[in-house]
């Protein structure tokens, strides 16, 4: 018989439990293939200062559409490179919308990398949140349950303050974690 000290028992109780995967809700109705354009829709705002998602949200009330994103594979570039498809390299807020296609049902791990802040909703669930100025870093691996193959709505709020910028999404669609292909994203015009 194993005996636990009261301190060991308390530590065991305090250990974080593994969270259950977030169950995503497919788009309803599913968009018809002919109604979709490859990539993601994006609107931009250029605030005087942006250090938080709250400031980005406020600026995005006056956002204007920008050139579509091809996907979410914007690697950390050089200081001075334009942020995503915007017209600036600093003080950019972006609202990104569209769909992500899962070709099979199942449990997937997903992750978002950003420089700077990011909040992502996918299939009705918040799957990423990193609300501060930082280098290109992970928002944290998240498990999601995809009940059926198909399109899932995606909405992201992103901001870049200054310096270099990145925005990327990884998943384990084939058993190993890697970039989501641009072909998995689409939006309605």
TrEMBL record:
Residues 1-19 form the signal peptide. It holds the Pfam family PA14. Transmembrane segments: none annotated. Keywords: Signal. Residues 35-187 form the PA14 domain. InterPro entries: PA14/GLEYA, PA14_dom. It comes from the Bacteria. This is PA14 domain-containing protein. It comes from Sulfitobacter mediterraneus. The lineage of its organism: Bacteria, Pseudomonadati, Pseudomonadota, Alphaproteobacteria, Rhodobacterales.
């Amino acid at each position: 018989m194993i005996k636990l000290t009261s301190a060991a028992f308390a530590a065991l109780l305090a250990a974080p439990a593994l969270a259950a995967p977030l169950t995503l809700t497919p788009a309803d109705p599913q968009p018809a293939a002919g109604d979709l354009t490859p990539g993601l829709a994006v609107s931009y705002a250029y605030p005087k200062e942006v250090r938080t998602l709250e400031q980005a949200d406020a600026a995005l009330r006056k956002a204007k559409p920008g050139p579509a994103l091809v996907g979410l594979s914007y690697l950390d570039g050089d200081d001075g490179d334009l942020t995503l498809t915007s017209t600036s390299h600093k003080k950019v807020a972006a609202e990104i919308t569209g769909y992500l296609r899962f070709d099979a049902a199942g449990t997937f791990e997903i992750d978002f990398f950003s420089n700077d802040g990011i909040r992502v909703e996918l299939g009705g669930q918040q799957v990423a949140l990193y609300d501060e100025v930082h280098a290109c870093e992970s928002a944290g691996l998240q498990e999601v349950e995809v009940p059926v193959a198909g399109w899932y709505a995606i909405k992201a709020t992103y901001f870049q303050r200054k310096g270099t910028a990145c925005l990327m999404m990884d998943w384990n669609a084939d058993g190993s974690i890697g970039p989501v292909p641009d072909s998995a994203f689409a939006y309605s015009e």
